[in-house]
Every structure is written in C-alpha cells, then in structure tokens.
Amino acid sequence: MTRKVSNFSDLIQRVTASCLLHPLADTRYDSSCEKDDKFLYESEPNMGADDDGEDEGDGEDEEDDEIDGYGEGKMVNLKALGEKKKLKQMESLLEDVFESVSAMKRAYMSLQEAHCPWDPEKMRVADVAVVAELRKVAVLRERFRRRRGVDENGRRRKVRRREAASLREVVAPYEAVVEELKREVKAKDLEVHNLKEKLDNVVTLSSNGGGSGGSGGKKVGRSQSKRKLGLSQIQAIAATPSPELFEAAMLQVREASKSFTSLLLSLMHNAHWDITAAVRSIEAATATTATKDSYNPSAITIATSIVSAHHAKYALESYISRKFFQGFDHETFYMDGSLSSLLNPDQFRRDCFTQYHDMKSMDPTELLGILPSCHFGKFCSQKYLAVVHPKMEESLFGNLEHHRQVSTGSHPRSQFYNEFLGVAKAVWLLHLLAFSLDPSPSQFEASRCAEFHPQYMESVVRFSSGRVPVGQIVGFPVSPGFKLGNGSVVKARVYLIARA
Q: Matching InterPro entries, A to Z (predicted)?
C-alpha cells in the first residue's frame, strides 16, 4: 500500500514539473492533461479497494509499471511538441525576414525611379518606406538574437527586459537625430527672426531716406541696406518679389558675367587670338545689325579700336551680355509662343516666383543632369550656340565636342561650360523675378555715341578723379538697365569715350 501511494505521488510530481517546464497553449496539451486527470480519478476506486484490505499481489506491480511507462511517454511527447513549436517560430521569423527584405528592395527601387524624372514627393514617400523597412529588419535581427539566447527553461521576465533594452538600442539613434534636428530648427528660427528684424530696420531706413530726395534718396537707402545685410541675406529673407530682390539678382548677373568673360579672354590669349581684331569686330556689331559671325576677327569694319588694350574685357562682356539678354522681354525668351503672362497674369507671376525660389539654391549642373530638356536646359542650349560659334570653339579647344553635346540635348561636364551655366542661371533667375513683379521692369540700353546720363548710366571704367569728366559719350553698352515699378533705376553699364 505504501508503495502504490508513493508511485502516484511521483507521477503527479513528474506531470506537474513537465507542465511547468513546457507551458504550451496547444489543445493537444490540454487534452493530455485532462487525460491525466481522468486517469488519476479512475484510479481512485482501486485505491479505495486497497484501503479495504484487498490484496492483488503481482497485479499491483504490473499496474505500477504501466503507470511509470505512461509518465515517461508523456514527457517525451511534451519535448517533441516543444521542439516542433520552436521550429515553427523560426520558420515564421525567416518568412518575416524575407518579406521585409523584399519590401525594402521595392521601396529602394521606387526611390531610384523618383530621381528620373525628378519627383520630390515620390522621393519623400519612397525614403520613408525604405527607413520603415530598415527598422523592421533591425527589429527582426534583435528577435533572432534574443530567441537564440533564450534558455529553454524560459525566464520570461528576463526576456522582456532584453526586449525593452534591444528596442531602446534600436530607437536611440533615431531619437538622437530627432533631438539634433530640433536644435537646428530652433537655431534657424532664431536666425530668421533676427534677419527679419534687420530687414524691417532697413526698409524703414530706406523709406525715411526717400522723402524729398526722390529717387536719389531711395538709392542711398538701398545701397545702405545692401551694405548692412548683404546680397545673400536679402535673398534668403525675401518671401515676396520686390525691387530690392531684383537689384540683388542683377548684381549676381554682373558678377557671373565678369567671371565667364575673364575665363573666355584667358582662353583666347592661350589660343593666340588677335584680341584687338576681335574687339574691333565686337565694336562693329554694336554699330550695325549683329550677325552670327559678328565676333569673327575677319569681319572688320572699323580701322582703329576705341577700346584700349587693357579694356578688351569690357567689349567681350558687352558681346556676351547682348547675346544673353536677347529675348529677355518675352516670357520664354521666344523659345515658344506661350502667352500665359497675358492670359492669366496673376497666376503666371506666382508661378514665376515659385520657380525662382525652387531654383535659386540648385546647382545648375545637377539640375541639367536630371532634367536636361527642361525649359532652363533649352535656354542654356540656345544661348550657348548663340554665344560660342563653332569656329570659336574649334579655335579654343581644338574640337567641337561641346557643340556636339549641346546640339543633341546634352550638357557637357567641363569648367568652361560650368562657368557658362553660372551666367545662364543668373540671367534665368533675373528673368523669373522680372515676370514676378507687378508691373514688370522696363529694360533699356544706352545707344552708341549717346550723351552720358549719371541717373541712368554707370561707367565700367573708373576715372582717377572719381567722377566722369565732362564731354564723355557712350562708346558701346556693356549691360542693360531697368526701370522698376517703384520708380528706382538699375543703371545700364557703359564704356565711355571722349567726344571727338
């Protein structure tokens, strides 16, 4: 009797320990436990019979052996179920990994497709999708590491702590980036606030300077504002088109034009050009109708040049400026017959200023690398073919590679073409600003042999006395001037000579 009770106690302990070591939510486990309970309950009458003194002899030992065999089989089944569950969990994890990698690949392909044609919104959505899939892969990696390191005894509290720590490790870099971006935004907001205050002060000063002084007072105020803020700050602050912004853009056109002229003149010297003959050809073009071959040194119609040897750069800059500003009065430089500025002027002005804002910070080389046939790309191609004649290019570089690429709709990657793009971008932005203003600026140009008017003209040559001597007339125009809607004037630049 004592042995039977002991065997049942051992059986109960083994089953209980197995359930605790291998907790499963499977219905097969529940049914087996119910079977154990049923087995135990059905064994109770026999226990009662033994208590009444019935002795079964060897049958008792056989029953004990059967119970011991049943317990051992149960333990084996539980271990098999546990291994099967782990295998299913690993298969599920691998499926999640393959799905996440495939989704990340699709998102990355969408990100590449958004670059050509250029689609900022599609790029933003694809970028978010790629980051989301990378996070999923990182979480799956941590799940695999945790699962590999989990002890089969299953300490769930320890697992939860590891999960929380792993999650913090995954999220921590992104939180740090977010905090850094927040600090940068605060710094930029403070900078914008300070610049707005400076702009308000400058505008107030400019208005007070206008008073009875007319346009001269306004000009003084504007020059002071440029000295205080600087060109880049004025452009960064401007939220609406303004005459001051147009003047700043015109200064950029002049600087870019000077830089390109210096490079072109240097190439001419290296190619052993007759600079004096080239200058005479340019002077002739300003006095007569310009032709495609007007730059050619053989087309000489003036016996002696009015430009001194060290002032040849002004004649060359005049030639470049005339080519770039040709068609400036039309909304598309006469590249097509668009009439949007007449059919819907308000919307057209808004569109022009939006394009100005979008393009002013772009690198023209990168833009044309993505959209070579956009309106700006067509403008660059048209102006390059107008400024650089095939004979000129062949003389400077020994080949016509630039012309070949430009003629086929491509844009060369060279220092010379990059300098050219600097002028093209500056003129294009000025053109967008001109059609953003209401009313649009009125362009004018000083004519050859005209009297010098300091209110509308500016001499490119500085005189020793600081003032233009009496009796000076226009030898040739260098760059055009503009009359703005607020009454101010962007002076035309001219090369002056003494009256004969």
A: DUF641_pln, GIL1-like, GIL1_IRKI_C
Strand (E) or helix (H) holding 309: none
Dihedral-angle region of residue 57 (phi above 0 means left; psi in -120 to 50 means alpha; beta otherwise):
left
Q: What are the strands, taking DSSP E only, across 185-321? A: none
Q: What is the pLDDT of residues 261-273, one digit of tens each?
A: 999 999 999 999 9
12-29 in b/e form (b: 16+ CB < 10 A) is eeebeebbeebeeeeeeb
Length of the chain: 500
Q: Are 247 and 482 in contact (CB under 8 A)?
A: no
Which two tokens mark 321? 């400026």
Beta-carbon neighbour count of residue 442 at 10 Å?
13
d(CA 144, CA 166): 11
**Which residues are registered as beta bridge partners of 443?**
482
- How far is Cα of residue 460 from the mean position of the Cα atoms in its chain? 39
Do the beta carbons of residue 477 and residue 445 sit within 8 Å? Answer: yes
The alpha-carbon radius of gyration of the chain (Å, integer) is 43
pTM of the predicted model over 0.90? no
